[in-house]
Amino acid sequence: MKPFGIVLGWHAYTKDLEEEYVTLASSHALRVEGLNTAPNLSFHSQIPATPGFQFKQKHKYNPNPKVEKKVYITLIQSDGLGIGAWLKPGRGEIPYGWEVIMNWINMAPAMLQFYYEQATPNDCFLGALGGAGYMYPKAIPPDKLPESIRLAGRFMDKLDLRIFEIFDASEPGTRDLPKRILDAFYKNMPDALGFFNGYGPAHTFDDRDGRPFISYDYYLSPKTSEAQAVADLEELATINPKRPYFLAFHVRESNDVKRVKAIMDALGPDFEIVAPDEFLTMAGERPTFTTRYEQPARADFSGVWKLDKRLSANIGIYKNSSFGLVKRIAQKGSQFSIETISNYGRSIRDSFLEIKAGGAPVKAPDRIRRMGYMGAYADSILTRLTWGNHKNALIFNSVLNLETSQGTYPVKIKSVYHFSRDGRQLIMTETRSSQKDGKPSVFVFLKTMPVFK
User: Which among 3, 252, 322, 378 is placed 20 to 30 Å from 65, CA to CA?
Assistant: First the structure.
């Protein structure tokens, strides 16, 4: 498929995750249209909009809003046009943001016309999500990212959209974006009033020439009670004491506007709801947030990791069905406690290593390391641990004297630990100086649930 082609369909829930599916598509510069609740696009794509219809918002943008010392909240419904929330009670009663599935201008133009015709002046549309379709910008090849953003910008021009939203789950544990991604959006989407980022809360913020980039500070789960949501918002206002405070509020799609309005009505007079476009204009005029970008994170290797033989390669005796390997890793900063449990049929070997990345070499306390089916073992192993790949990989360099039938033989072993791109696999690549072919052993571990006592 050529770059910027559209992938129709959703991931297989029993085989993979949404994040994996969209990351894979984005890595090929492909646009995802999930079809989760719109399975009839072969039909809708054949129904054009009414001749002469203009996609113009009924919401009227105020370019000169008054900024006071208040907590300003803007509300944006997640997942396209809310997966049913549009038709539920409350819409039109308060300023509210709705994510537009921009590809519908080609794939379902009459259906998109329905939303534009049904909108009230309080319904503010914004472009989504991450590209000209559902895409993760960090996963898009860097040489394709500018065109992806420009393509999204052309859709925004056609649909009278002034705001763009980004959500990137290509890396586990973070929804933040590095500076290079913001640079690309600011450069290639010059007409946007500003940008929203995240799904749940995130911490990427910027402001350039009055065009802010703001991450969500709150996420309304359907399971959160109204009273708890009110308490959360009041606490956010306490821990962000500067006024004005700009609080971007993301509403999970299965909520409705009536429920959100009840939460807003319970807040005090210092809180005010504003439309997303006015919110960004005010935030650009009086920014009180701190500029932040995603920082390279140090990987956390903690967990119980079990060898997956199907995914591993060149692992010798561990291919045997009765053999297994488990690693229990506890990490505090650069300090590691590693327990390795090996079972060879009926024999179980348990070894421990306490070591610090960047610290002094450590002699393994266990006495014997066997070489599989080969007649060799070592009872003297000295290991040094260092960080690699911006602290996202661990490099173990070990020296040992193998006891052989002819005496001893010095060997060096290098083991590199790193995660797969989706963070679900711990991959250990090991090479030994005594191996002639130089072919590494690749051990792939999957995380398992620990046993809590």
Answer: 252
